[in-house]
Design goal:
It is a single chain. With 164 residues, the chain is an alpha+beta fold. The protein has a single domain (26-163), classed as OB fold (Dihydrolipoamide Acetyltransferase, E2P). The protein has helices at residues 2-18, 27-33, 129-163, and strands spanning 36-45, 60-71, 78-83, 92-100, 103-106, 112-116. A five-stranded mixed β-barrel has the order 1-2-3-5-4. A hairpin with a 6-residue loop joins strand 2 (60-71) and strand 3 (78-83). The longest helix is centred in the last third of the chain and has 35 residues, at 129-163.
Length: 164
């Protein structure tokens, strides 16, 4: 009985440690340590194929269309993506992660960068990886600034309504 309890405790500890959030050590390190860097559009979430829930596993499972491979396995056009981030359809994302047997994995707080709906392949075609990533980060910043401005305008309208 003691052995069974010990085995269960060890298995639980290993599963928790396997997915502890890591400290972000910078974009250069993430870029260097990610075997795959892609831009993709998510489709609908993939329906679960099992009734099991995995502790510390990915939170989301999507089908994706690969728009561009910046680093890694070329020739993949459609795949699954396991990620810790909820994704919105009709928007593009930059993913840092890995690929194996038809499944991309993008785990961690900084592994997914939303690019919005304005990404065009021509923005990065023919440019070196560092410049491509810089352009994509700037696109993400521009989209965030636009979203912040829209939210600020909405907030001001609501605050004005409270004054009446």
């Amino acid at each position: 009985m003691k052995t069974k309890v010990t085995i269960v405790i060890v298995l639980l500890t290993v599963s928790v440690i396997a997915r502890l959030p890591s400290v972000f050590l910078g974009w250069d390190r993430l870029k260097a340590e990610s075997p795959e860097i892609i831009i993709a559009d998510p489709g609908e979430p993939t329906p679960p194929t099992t009734g099991l829930l995995f502790e510390n596993g990915p939170r989301f499972d999507f089908s994706i269309s690969v728009l561009s491979v910046l680093k890694g396995t070329d020739g993949v056009r459609h795949a699954r993506l396991l990620a810790d981030h909820e994704l919105r359809t009709r928007e593009s994302y930059l993913f840092f992660g890995s690929y194996d047997k038809g499944i991309y994995k993008a785990h961690g707080e900084f592994s997914v960068v939303p690019l919005g709906m304005t990404f065009k392949q021509e923005m990065i075609t023919g440019k070196p990886l560092d410049e491509q990533i810089r352009i994509l980060f700037q696109l993400a910043i521009d989209n965030l600034n636009s979203e912040i401005a829209n939210k600020q305008a909405e907030k001001e309208r609501l605050e004005e309504a409270l004054k009446k």
